[in-house]
Amino acid sequence: MRDEWEHVHTDYTRPAQRPAPASLAESEGDWRRYLEGDTPNGWLIQHSAMTEALVSGRPMYLLHTTKDIAAIRTSGELHVSTGCLVGALYCSPLTRQREGLRPHNLGAYLMQTKPGTTPMIFEVIPDAPIPTKGVDYLHLGAIHLRTYLRYQNFLTLAENDQLDHAVLTGLGAAAGFLDTALRNAVGRATKAPEFIDQLAAAVPAVPFLGYLYFEVLSEYLMLHSTTPETRGYAQVGELNNWLYKRLAFAAVDSMHRLFDLARFHPRHQQLVQLIACVEPALAPGVAEYVRRRLAHLFARIALHPSQDAATVSFRGIDLSALRYVAPGLVGQMVFREIRYMPRYRQLYHCFEKAKALEAWDYWNHEGIPTPFNGILPKGEIGIHPVFPRSAVRAWTAKRDSRGLLHPAQEITAVLTPHLASWWAPPRNRGRMITTDSQVMVDRSAPSSVSAYRSSIEGISA
Fold first, then answer.
1. CB 3.0–4.6 Å: which of 29, 171, 176, 249 could bond 16 by disulfide?
2. What is residue 426's predicted lDDT score, i.e. its pLDDT?
3. Rounded to an integer, what distance in angstroms lies between the CA atom of residue 400 and that of residue 270?
């Protein structure tokens, strides 16, 4: 079990060591060397301000925004959320300066786009330097599958049959693209525009592909951007989170009301237009990057490491075999399908608390009081609620005219191993992509979003 959680985490201070399927044209190490050494902002993967704060062993200062400050004061408790951090209080870094605490650009984004929320400052005092191991939610599929199989008797026979049928139907509809992705991963290249259009058509059948698509584009933008804004953030050790936020809100109608990446599936022509609106210089190379990167990641994430990517096909394979051959993909599909069941509000804590308990045990063993989103160390960091060897204090925050935060009133509340309430987004697999060729993105500020927040895995709206 602990080996599975080790596989889910990425340590950016060490060479890539995860086992992978055979026959891949490129290794995780190949990609790590390219991303770190051959992109304008790749140096931030190992040397961001956040990762350096982790390894320093000094107190960490983190920003959390909440709509429920009155409830926190009354109850004296803070509950954690699931999502990309599995079971942690979602935060972003604060940098201590003489004049105050400077928010990371992700935190500045959250405060600007979540009116009606109260910013909170957390001080986490670790007992030792913190490993730079980030949890990568894209790799959680095998754990999702194992958890479902362990607790599937909580579902009725009809619900289990419905789940199996939904997974098989989705895989059957997308099998052509899934096989195309594997062929590209082993070096048999498809033309990039054709690959992107096939990917876009497959997302409604396999919603996880929308998450993978978006994360690949986020990586591309953050690591390759050279705008003055991005360079300014890089100078203070930060990747630019505003880029992918702009992309998401420009790509999908009403994303500001429901941040659901199952609806993210732009075809090739729109993809190029969207990237051109975010940063014109990056548009020419985006399709080929997505083809190579997404195909490689899909093979590593979907297939069991014992498999040979050159011999696997998703056509006509039964579910029992799929669970063995591609546990990562099946688990991601099960995780997303089960959330739409009418009874999932009742079952949510059964499935998600089981995973959170395992994550907490792993973090305690590894000495991680502040887990972060390890797709990239981009500033999504959390507080582990039951780490036994760190002290945590919290205050409400006041913001000065320069945008710096200062502790205002100390909050006498404790983090607890309870998951915040969760709801399922309405199922909507219709095409919600903006088709207007004149899509415009304001590069000086993100799209305005409401204070509403959904707990979609991997992204906090």
1. 29
2. 59
3. 41
